Amino acid sequence: MRSSVVSAAAGLVSGFALVAGLGAASGWGDAGPVTVAPTTTSEVVAREGPQYFDPSEVVVGQAVLVPDALRMDGDAAVFTYRLEAIAPLQGQETGYVSQFVGDPGTAIQPETLPPVFPASWTLLTAGASYPGATTTVTSRSVRFDVPTRFSPSQATGLRIESYRVPLPISEVFVLSEAEPVLEIAPGVSVSLIQIVDQGEQTIVQVEIVAEDPFNRENLTVEGVGSVWASAVREAEGRPRYNLRLALDETPENLVLRVRGMVWLAVGGPIEVALGER
Amino acid sequence: MHEETFAELLRSPLDEDIPPRQRSWLLPLVAGVAVGALLGWAWVASRAAEETVVTATTTSVGEAPVAAVPFPAGFLRVSETAAMRPEALYAVRDATVVVITTVAAAGTPPDRSPVPPGGVWELRDVEGRVIDGYEEIRNPASLGTVAVRFPGADAQVRSLALTPLTEPEVITASVPIEIPQFPFTTGRSFEMPLASDLRLSGVLTSLDAEGGDVRWSLQGADALAQVDLAITLPGTEGEDGAVTTMLSEHIAPPYPFQRQRAPRPSPLASGTDVVRRTGPEIDDPTTVTRAVIDVTVSVYRTRDDAVVEFDLAPLTG
Predict the structure, then answer these.
(1) ipTM strictly over 0.90?
(2) Residue A167 touches partner B, C-beta closer than 8 Å
(3) Residues in A touching B27 (Cβ below 8 Å)
(4) Which of B33, B53, B258 lies nearest to residue A11, judging by beta carbons?
(5) CA angle B294, B297, B302 (to 5 degrees)
(6) How confident is the model at residue B35 (pLDDT cuts 50, 70, 90)?
(7) What residues of A are in contact with residue B33 (Cβ under 8 Å)?
(8) Nearest C-alpha of chain B: how many angstroms from A74?
(9) In terms of Cα–Cα distance, which of B162, B171, B157 is closest to B82?
(10) Is residue B246 pLDDT above 90, yes or no?
(11) How far is CA A100 from CA A93, A177, A269, B137, B175, in A?
(12) Which of A175, A224, B25, B41 has the fewest CB atoms within 10 Å of its CB?
């Protein structure tokens, strides 16, 4: 009986040593560069906060960004992702906004609105970084111009450098020929272009002036009070509004109201998982 | 078959010259080697797996959730299912604006998480002084984002305090008023009780054929309100029997030239409502001799025991 136990133990040790030694010598345990798991997603480490949709998500303002993949598209590395709003929706007013759907006065459901806009990015490798920018509000991908022969497996990190949130705007203000420009938000102004006297009525033309093209479309301007008969945006070109004033004489101070939203650049950086590669 | 013959057939060449008593160690040895090899293979495999993960971790930043934390880092609870976080702070002209984002608790579907109604906001500067006189701005297109504007652009701010509100109590009331002259700009006041400790005072400051303005304020207990007005003008019935009604602009249909309906104002202690005509045009002003003001008031009490203070230092650099 004792010899059986001894021989079983000896066999166990020698079998383990043989296979483990062979394995170590042959490099089974050596994970090579990233190619060992070319489609691996990122490591999941402890963080403070709950999970809404996916372990790899990151919170960006009132949304979470869920990484999809980093892949090559021609000469560019393209990172794709999903954005999910996590803002409360119960009781949210239905929007009457044309900027997202095209037709004035069309009601849209709040959950279809873009929650945030990740604007500028950096793709990192061991020795370099590559900037990228999301060009449209509804985009769910970002391109990075990388050297030829770049492989997504070389990427070591990804950051959102800045993102934008939909800043609500509602303000009554005064424009006059003496003070024809008014800043309403960082990088966004309303400018008095001209006043055209047409006899029994006057057309006041104002323009939304914004550094970023996507901030020119989401605001409306109208007159305040029953002396204003209409407000019509010019069909093409710059966001200019023709406000019809039903008065023979133009008042010195024009009381107007601007409403809507602008995409305000806020914080960062935010580290983002690279997703599938 | 005879047992001895059968045993003979099963003999291994190794058995040839080994007496049965001396062969008893062989089977355990073979079994031990096999088990050891399996264990060794498992160890190598696990080591390889570990190292694969380690290699992947050098490129990764994803984070696993810590259970039982309902809101992301930096968000402070302002209601049962919602939390807020200041995202930005900027000065524009003569005002300071704090931009706040709102999230629902994880595990609560956003469409079952009520949009928090806001509350009473106070900005505090580094000297401890309180800046009030806020204006809370929302827009249906700005999902989950609130801007709170304070007077003054030069303050060195330290924190933002929010006194949250209760769920609203909706109260309706109706009051008739006489209109001796139409149109008018001289004001007609009205008052209506909302609760034993609260009443609404209002002034219809002007009214003409297309609309007017109403100023209102709450009197009594600490509370805020959202007010929806419908001013009906008896005597203006058209051929179809419809009566001219002036509606608060945030509940009136947008004019054709408007690209947006006016957003519903945030709860306030006092406010001014613009009302706009719906229904038939008023051809003969002399038919307007009285009005019925129907008011729907959503009353929010302040929750003084639940004040939330947001540190603005991360935004001021």
Answers:
(1) no
(2) yes
(3) 4
(4) B33
(5) 165
(6) low
(7) 11-12, 14-15, 18
(8) 23
(9) B162
(10) yes
(11) 16, 33, 28, 21, 41
(12) A224
- Euclidean distance between CA atoms B48 and A29, whole angstroms: 4
Give long-range contacts, CB 8 A cutoff, 24+ apart: A141-147.
Answer: A141/A78, A141/A79, A141/A80, A141/A81, A142/A78, A142/A79, A142/A118, A143/A73, A143/A76, A143/A77, A143/A78, A144/A76, A144/A77, A144/A78, A144/A79, A145/A75, A145/A76, A146/A75, A146/A76, A146/A77
- pLDDT in the model for residue A94: 65
Sign of the CA dihedral with A104 first, then A109, A115, and A120 last: negative
- Segment holding B298, helix H or strand E: strand B290-301
- Which of A47, A67, A185 comes nearest B64 by C-beta? A47
| Predicted pLDDT of residue B200 | 96
- Per mean pLDDT, which range of B213-217, B257-261, B302-306 is the poorest? B257-261
The residue of chain A nearest to residue B45, with distances taken between CA atoms, is A29
User: Residues of A with CB below 8 A from B105's CB?
Assistant: 50
Dump strand ranges (E) for B27-126: 63-64, 76-77, 82-92, 95-104, 119-125
Question: What DSSP designation does B305 have?
Answer: G
Would you state the pLDDT for residue A26? 41
Candidates A18, A32, A95; nearest CB to B140: A95
pLDDT, tens digit, 9 for 90 and up, residues A101-122: 334 445 556 666 778 999 999 9
Contact A87 B211 (CB under 8 A): no
* Residues in chain A where the model's pLDDT stays below 70: 1-48, 94-112, 226
Listing DSSP states for A35-51 in one string gives: GGSTT-----EE-SS--
Q: Do A46 and B257 touch (CB under 8 A)?
A: no
The DSSP annotation for A128-189 comes to -EEEEE--STT--EEEEE--TT--GGGEEEEEEEEEEEEEEEEEEEEE-SSS-EEEEETTEE
Alpha-carbon separation of residue A86 from A60, A83, B112, B137 (angstroms): 10, 10, 11, 20
Write down the residue that tokens 């935010």 correspond to: A270
Of A7, A23, A55, the CB nearest to B25: A7
Has residue B138 got a pLDDT over 70? Answer: yes
pTM score, two decimals?
A: 0.75
Closest CA to B73 of B110, B103, B109, B100: B103
Rounded Cα distance, B16 and B24, in Å? 14
Please identify among residues 120-149 of chain A the ones whose CB lies closer than 8 Å to any CB of chain B. none
In the predicted structure, residue B153 carries a pLDDT above the cut 50: yes
Chain-chain contact of A170 with B82 (C-beta, under 8 angstroms)? no
Q: Please give the structure tokens belonging to residue A248.
A: 């023979």
Structure tokens at B7: 């045993």
